[in-house]
Amino acid sequence: MSPRVGEALRRTFAAARTSRNFRLYLVGQVVSAAGTWMNFTASSWLVLQLSGSGTAIGINAALAFGPVLVLAPWSGAIADRHDRRRILTVTQAALGLIALATFTLIITGAANLTLVYALSLAGGVVTAFDNPTRQSFYVEMVGERALANAVSLNSAAFTGARIVGPAVAGLLISTVGIAWPFLVDGLSYLAVIAALLAMRPEEMHPQARSTERGRRLLEGLRYVWSTPGLRRPLVVLAVVFTVSFQFMVLIPLLTERVFHEGAEVFGSLSAVAGLGSFVGALVMAHRNARPSLAELGGLAVAFGVGLLFVAVAPSLPVAVALMVPLGFVTMGFMITGNTMLQLNARPDARGRVMALYGAVFLGSTPIGSLAIGWFAEHVGVRAGFALAGVVACLTGLVVVGGAPASSGARLRRDRSVGATSQTAPGGRPGAAGAGPTARRRAPTEGTAGPSRRRSERIRGEGGAPGRVGAGTGRPGGWPPSRGGEPP
After folding, report:
1. Which of 10-19, 215-224, 327-336, 338-347 is most confident?
2. Can you tell me the distance from the alpha carbon of 206 to that of 196, in angstroms, rounded to the nearest whole number?
3. Nearest by Cα to 339 from 216, 484, 169, 130
4. 208-217, 220-229, 371-380, 457-466: least confidently modelled range
5. In this structure, what are the phi and psi dihedrals at residue 337, rounded to the nearest 5 degrees?
6. Mean pLDDT of the residues in the chain
7. Are 134 and 151 in contact (CB under 8 A)?
């Protein structure tokens, strides 16, 4: 192996190479994510077969992701206050049980649309608490300096599984029946749970924990809105996620109504898009640079153009080929937005910031999926792709035209989340009367220690571009997703 290739591999897999805890998590995520994609593929096909309606697919997606939007303030606050590894162990076990319950209903012949909707809603409630916890857990495993690389590698694992998961699900559906992808998914959660239990707490990177409760939840929202480096990318993500990212609802309709094919082709289309996303995640992991708002806007434009090309694809082979670049820019957009929010957020508010990211990524689905499903049902599937593409292009053009040109970020001290936060050794929340050790580990606003000052040096108002960390290209200091992704 040449030195240049070796250096490229070291840069690309830096977080996995230096953190045992993250390596364990990544291996578990690869196994579990394959099951998740099988579930996602089978769920869409199951609802379509039970109802024959594109609107029903949108309703199912709304029930699955609606709780993320409704519960975001509370779930983010819980992620900021409690042990995230324990929360993830519980939520992953619950999601596995829901998948096994779906398998049981189908295999016994008891499945109907109402029960499928009910299980989707239950999964949505669990996901509402799983998502912000998982997104803000990366920095505890690898620290801020390797955060962008960890987010990208987790996204690569999730989208790499997307190459296999949908194709296997389509094969299982067409050969042994639609129940079996749900069984595989339910069992796959054991891999993540085993990885979480095997982690070494002493190798974690403790983060400041919030002590805020009920009445302070809205202060987290005010903090995000008053911080341009968080507000601007979050608005862009909200618009594109709400409309353009709902193209996944259109893929089963494109398969059946435009190209007149079955579950196997549907799985193949999703898998090919996953190949593009996998490559995109690896490219972002190797690049590992601090993203800018202009970069986020440019990726939105590229994403919109890809959707417009799919809208006019004259044949199935052309549509399959277009899914590769579409998946590439989709993943680039997601990782860029995710990383901007995590690096610009205060450690003691990161859970709430990522809960809002989950709200616009997953929680926007109830609105967007219903709208795009209805639009495709009454206007046309190709028109649905075109609408999604136009919205992404216009949003990206507005962002690129108005993004700050300066690469030097004006320093900002974010004081909007006012409660004192302390972290006890091992990363557990400290009590209000914690001793000197806890106070030294997590300085409060009035006692900014070295780690606090370092985080302030890398935080700017507009998420300005630029590499931090001489000689490494790592951001100072994904995926979250659920690396991006369906959860």
Report:
1. 327-336
2. 16
3. 484
4. 457-466
5. -65, -45
6. 78
7. no
Q: Which domains does the chain have, with CATH numbers?
A: 10-199+216-402 (1.20.1250.20)
Q: Report the predicted TM-score, pTM, of the whole model to 2 decimal places.
A: 0.64
| CA terminus-to-terminus distance, the chain | 37
Q: Is the pLDDT of residue 344 over 60?
A: yes
Residues 71-86 pLDDT 10s: 877 888 888 888 899 9
Q: Can you tell me the distance from the alpha carbon of 307 to that of 427, in angstroms, rounded to the nearest whole number?
A: 43
For the purposes of burial, counting CB atoms within 10 Å of the CB of 258, is it exposed (0-12), middle (13-18) or buried (19 or more)? Answer: middle
Residue 12 has pLDDT above 90, yes or no: no
Instruction: Find where tokens 């697919």 sit.
Output: 57
Exposure string (b/e) for 39-78, b if CB count within 10 Å is 16 or more?
Answer: bbbbbbbbbbebeeebbbbbbbbbbbbbbbbebbbbbbbb
Query: CA dist 87 to 79, 123, 130, 133, 269, Å?
Result: 8, 15, 7, 7, 34
* Residue 484 DSSP code: -
The tokens for 27 are: 């291996």
Which residue's structure tokens are 């779930």?
75
Is 375 in contact with 70 (CB distance < 8 Å)?
no
For 381-422, where are the E strands, in sequence order?
none
Q: Are 219 and 211 in contact (CB under 8 A)?
A: no
CA distance 362 to 360: 6
Name, in order, each residue with C-beta under 8 angstroms of 307's C-beta and a sequence gap of 6 or more: 244, 247, 326, 385, 386, 388, 389, 392
CB 43 within 8 A of CB 51: no
Alpha-carbon gap, residue 87 to 78, rounded angstroms: 9
d(CA 244, CA 230): 21
More confident residue, 302 or 54: 302
Average pLDDT of span 124-137: 89
Say which DSSP state 466 is in. B
Q: What is the pLDDT of residues 217-271, one digit of tens each?
A: 567 678 888 888 899 999 999 999 989 988 888 888 899 899 988 877 887 887 7
**Range with top average pLDDT, 243-257, 268-282, 377-391:** 377-391
Residue 284 CA to residue 305 CA, distance in Å, equals 20
In terms of phi and psi (left: phi > 0; alpha: psi -120 to 50; beta: otherwise), the region of 289 is beta
How confident is the model at residue 180, as a pLDDT? 94
Identify the H or E element spanning 68: helix 54-70
